[in-house]
Amino acid sequence: MNHRLRRSCLSLLVIASFGTASVVWAGEPHAPEVDPRIGTGGDGHVFPGATVPFGMIQLSPDTAMPDFKHAYKWAAGYQYNDPTIMGFSHTHFSGSGHSDLGDVLVMPIAGEVKLDPGDEKVTGSGYRSRFDHATEVEQAGYYAVTLADYDVRAELTANRRVGWHRYTFPTGKPAHVLLDLRPSIYDYPGKVVWSNLQVRADGTVTGCRTTRGWAPGRELCFAMRFNQPMTSRELYNRETDVIYKGFKGPGYQPQDANAQNGRAIVGVFDFGELKTPLLAKVATSSVSEANAIANLDQDGQGWNFDAQRHNALEAWNKALAPIDVDGPQTLRTQFYTALYHALISPSLSMDVNGQYRGPDHQVHHADGFDFYSSWSMWDVYRAQQPLLILLHPDRTVDFVRSLIAAQQASPFGMLPVWAYQGLETWCMTGYHAVAIIADAYVKGIRGYDADKALKAMASTATYGDYGDLADYMKLGYVPIDKEVEGGSKTQEYAYDDWAIAQMAKAMGKHDVYDTFEKRAGYWRNVWDPKTGFMRARLSTGPFREPFDPTSAGYGDDYTEANAWQYSWYVPQDVAGLITAMGGDQAFTHKLDELFDAKVDPSIFKNVEDITGLIGWYAHGNEPSHHIAYLYDYAGEAWKTQARLKQIMDNEYGPGPAGLIGNDDLGQMSAWYIFTALGFYPVTPASDEYAIGRPFVPRAAIHLGNGRTFTISAAPFDDAHPYVGEVTLNGKPLDRVYLKHADILAGGELHFTMQAQPNKSWGQAVSARPAAMSSYR
Fold first, then answer.
1. What local confidence, expressed as pLDDT, does residue 252 receive?
2. Confidence of residue 423 (pLDDT cuts 50, 70, 90)
């Protein structure tokens, strides 16, 4: 239903059900409430520029593209406190902890043209320009800024495959557009393997470049058109020495010609003095220049910039519409910005003709679905993908089909681990694509070949060369003398195996279920009852010595964490972990130790991702994200409520520094959304959500089946931080978990809040969320 129509139809609709009256409403469009600046400073690593939900184009300013030794804070190309902009490029990750992209950098210039970016500390040393944040406009689908050194007003918007630019130049100065194919986020010498640039007879500018970055051998092509004719153009190769097909000669030679090739290509397009704004539109393709042109022809029709901006805004209004939230404006801005960030990735990675580049670097064709890439699996399986199952289940079908297609094209028979633009990086650990697929299946998402999906999952989990799966299958753990981070890898593999087992069980594949259900218990092989921590073992059997539970770093027992943080990672068997730790009281006591510890943050100075410390708890990195909810599993739900308030108060906020750690393609933001609503998917691939407490007074989830699930809390203020009682559709809810079916059925979940904790709610074992050792 049209969002505007639904608002008028439902704003006053009262439905009586389950003996109670529930108001169902849909609020004003939410895109205007988004503030893309949140997270653009500090370690949030998000970009402020223009994109549409899950779009191929992320058109955003780049303030710096430093070399790989200093690139961490510029993973999205932009840092809020930087003084200059070096241009606007068309591809960015949103909140990643690693970096690449920054393709097709464009810079409008009024007056004299310099061919290199220059030094940000030396005004006029290059083509970069100073800017003032007061001139920036950051909105969902739109970005604008004034480039102070040129007095050029730059405006950006986007649709699925095209980035749109509008440049208003000052009078009396010639207008130029510089296109630089050299810069790349996470840059280093020799990253650009080869590039080409040409101006075609109709004025269309096209080109490709191949890079050996995070995904080696990545090729990206583009097509660009302007709404006004060039008066002249110069194409440069800025290599100090040009070597091509056996020819060696000097670089730095301008070419007033139609084509240029090399590793350091720059184009300058001249337009003379302009009386009207110059418009440019750019499409990309990972396949070919011809496909980029086809993308531009189909998705880049016309020259109405304002219409494109309006369409981008409406795309965001539609994507944000499934949740309405009441509350103060500051809360709503925080909420809808988090939801906005959770809806950027995965990114469309397919051309209008259905072609895409696969992990084998070959061209493939998607039949009947859109192919998506940009998969930060280690992060997004936890909350971002479960959130999309609730809000955009139709999109999840394409996500699952994309994962299966990528596995079919993998030379190793592997599902994606950390992939973008179709290519694999092998970054991070585990094989968490299986959890995304299993979660979708368990929650009723169909529209893909389930048998093929399960085979893809099993193939991934049995590829022995990946992360020493061979020893894991043989020994029941990943030996640390054979594979770094063997402790956490054992734990992650065991959870993923459990996810495979759940899908196999639901499909009636009992042999597959038995195999992977057994492997799901392998976490016990790295549990050390003597120290009370998870530890890595040697291939000969003993735990590795010496052992320091505070130690973290590459080569240690754990991935981006220490023993205090990873010892809680058994989401599939929390009940078993409680027993291993000595029972409910010992378990919650150790959780209290984790949160209440006095920790010097400098201990993690060599592990950039470990941020947002509350004791040993590190909210800025994903291994900690489920921990606050674990009190629910041990009968002390009131402590979950208290810890969540600590986290929400300290780890999120307004402004550029509003994200305490990398957003990681929407995971940090999705955690916020679930927690604000009052529940969280501790164990994706189950059908349960652990209940916390809401951080909004009222919210409504408009489900794809036409029903609405409403959450309300009263009194809602800091004086009443604890849950007194909960009702579901007017009836008392004694359990501290929701079933997925509870939400899909619609109705109302109401929290009565109070000043003091209700220590008896959720205390009974039957009231706790399920885990492998306590199936109900």
1. 57
2. very high
Distance CA 651, CA 634 (A): 25
Write out pLDDT tens, residues 77-118: 999 999 999 999 999 999 999 889 999 999 999 999 999 999
Quote the distance between the C-alpha of residue 725 and its chain's center: 35
Measured between alpha carbons, how far is 738 from 729 in angstroms, rounded to an integer?
A: 13
What predicted TM-score, i.e. pTM, was given to this entire model?
A: 0.95
Task: Quote the radius of gyration of the chain (alpha carbons, Å).
Answer: 26
What class has domain 1-33+573-776? alpha beta
Kindly indicate the confidence band of residue 28, based on its pLDDT and cuts at 50, 70 and 90. Answer: confident
Cα 258 to Cα 96: distance, rounded to the nearest angstrom: 37
pLDDT, mean over the chain? 93
Cα–Cα distance for residue pair 108/86, rounded to 1 Å: 10
pLDDT of residue 593: 98
Please state whether beta strands 708-714 and 747-754 pair in parallel, antiparallel, or not at all (unpaired).
parallel
| 646 Cβ contact partners less than 8 Å away, ≥ 6 residues apart | 595, 614
Domain extents in the chain: 1-33+573-776, 34-315
Q: Strand, helix or coil at 5?
A: helix
Helix orientation angle between 450-461 and 510-519, rounded to the nearest 10 degrees: 30
Separation CA 163–CA 157 (nearest Å): 6
Does domain 34-315 correspond to CATH entry 3.30.1490.180? Answer: no
- Give the orientation angle of helix 433-442 with respect to helix 486-507, to 10 degrees: 30
pLDDT band at residue 139 under the 50/70/90 scheme: very high
Contact in structure between 194 and 228 (CB atoms under 8 Å): no
66: tokens are 């430093």
